[in-house]
Amino acid sequence: MSTKNNRGRGQRGPLASVGLHSVLAVAAFVAAFPVAWVAYVSLGAGEFDYQHPSRIAAHPSLANYGHVLNHTDFFTWLGNSTIIAVGTTVVGVLVAASAGYAVSRIRFLGRGSLMYSFLLTQMFPVSVLMVPLYKILANTKLLDSYAGLVLVYCTTAVPYCAWLLKGYFDTIPVEIDEAGRIDGLSPFGTFWRLIIPLARPGLAVAAFYTFLTAWGEVAFASFFLLSSNHYTLAVGLQTFVSQYNSQWNYLAATGVLIAIPAAAFFYLVHKNLVTGLTAGGTKG
Amino acid sequence: MTVAASAEAATPRRTEEEPPQQAGPFRRLRRSYDQFWYAWAMCAPVAVILGVLVGYPLVLGIMYTFTDATSLNVGHTIGVNHIPDTFSWVGLKQYVDILSGPDNQFWPHFWWTIIWTVSCVAITVSLGLGLAVLLNRQVRGRTLYRVLLVLPWAVPTFVTIFSWRLLLSDGGAVNHLLGSLGLGQPEWLSDPFWQKIAAITVNVWVGVPFMMLSMLGGLQAIPGELYEAAEMDGASPWQRFRNVTLPGLRPVSSTLILLGVIWTFNQFNVIFLLFGSTNSDSVQILVTYSYKLFFGQNPMDYAGAATVGVLCLSILIVFTEFYRRWIRRMQGEQA
Prior knowledge:
The structure holds two protein chains of two kinds.
Chain A: H1 14-41, H2 53-58, H3 63-71, H4 74-105, H5 111-121, H6 126-139, H7 146-170, H8 174-182, H9 187-198, H10 200-215, H11 219-224, H12 233-238, H13 248-281
Chain B: H1 4-17, H2 25-64, E1 76-78, E2 81-83, H3 93-100, H4 106-135, H5 142-154, H6 157-168, H7 173-180, H8 192-220, H9 224-232, H10 237-265, H11 269-275, H12 286-295, H13 302-334
Antiparallel strand pairs in B: 1-2
Helix pairs in contact in B: 4-8, 4-10, 5-8, 6-11, 8-10, 8-11, 10-13, 12-13
């Protein structure tokens, strides 16, 4: 169509291709380098190797991993983190999905104010909620327990997920609900048997977001978990770098071990990420 | 109640037509209940969780701002002994002290928080949009690029920020690189000015992937015919970007910017983990400053921390209100 050059629509010249690839390569390098650096530092066995990175390449070793796995509470922390993160994901996504569905499909009283209050909860600084939450958890015997932390994390993750899923449900045609209702399903049945299976990409994104929120949270976890056998990875990691000793090498090794499950989860959902986030964005 | 959609479409119109005097609020509530009880049932879990764990603590937190509560006089339990509350009401003293007290620390933190939020959101959104536009093309190895670019989001911040601490430390890799290029080697983690630059850089690094993926989603939702039509009319790539891409992205980007502002304003992890609690007072934004009031001293100043928190919340509510009005007006102009 274009007469100036012999390229069709949407095709690039070689120069543009080189430019595009170099920009993307630089960006990808900047994004990945700090993560790769942790992995590199984790191979240096000496306590001060991180200050002399060139030493590490000469004697890479897995000694840090051995120490972390055998001589620390790593598996306890990992277990706690997993229970809390998976618990938050299951509870949070279920609760967010049902609310998101109701808001998406039904024009009931109080629908607008519910959406606004979702937005409002994102504005609360931790410091206002910290002491009152502590008191509530202490009064309900949920302090220092998995359930308490799961509920607290739900408050931070559920509003965004409900909003995201509402957007996704909006893209599923209402005719599907109608068909379900005509065939005699209850409103809950329609939601559970028809909509949930169709909304899998959206749910995957919500699950990913919730999991990461719970997996990486620091402030609440370090305040609400009192006994060391309930520490999550985020809290346990802080014990390596205290006022008295900074064992960066162990920290780096633990960091790599922590990143693996998160990255694996990401790999599982990454195909859905874009479509899931799309839908969430179309309506504010 | 045969078909969900007909009820959905018909009901609001019917209620609007009826004069409010005839159907009193109670009757309207009653009919709404009959028709939509299951909607409320589905929202109940969220409402209960948010009400108990956000609403109630918020009320308590606001209450603390009118007292002189510290960790010593708030009721707590040591072993089997329960010590009751002994703090007293001081009215607006906390607010007056914080906004105009003798050791005024609020305003410097406030201005820095504004600069921090504006620059982080502006840079994150533009970089995210730029990368999304690039990734939206046919590129060889797109999946690989995408996986690498999302890493900062997928790896927990407490891991990546420890890595940044290593990289930015005095003899760290960043300064090695700058030195070999013959540039200056600032003290990223201790000099007040460079601390701020480092904080913004790291926060942008953490925030770009989320923006990029969301923008990419928004881009893919723009119909391709619009671009074809623009091309037929002879629009240059830049004109297509300005007049097709940006307006098409507006529903996504307006929400993303709002969320970005709220999340950045309340960003706790980056500054807390990057600088810890040592010699870093000027880089603390309001949220971490109030956390320091809370943990950084003994006795912990609950009332002061809560007051700063409530001030943050008020700033955000005012901002959101203005922003939403502005968006609505822009949409009105378009239509």
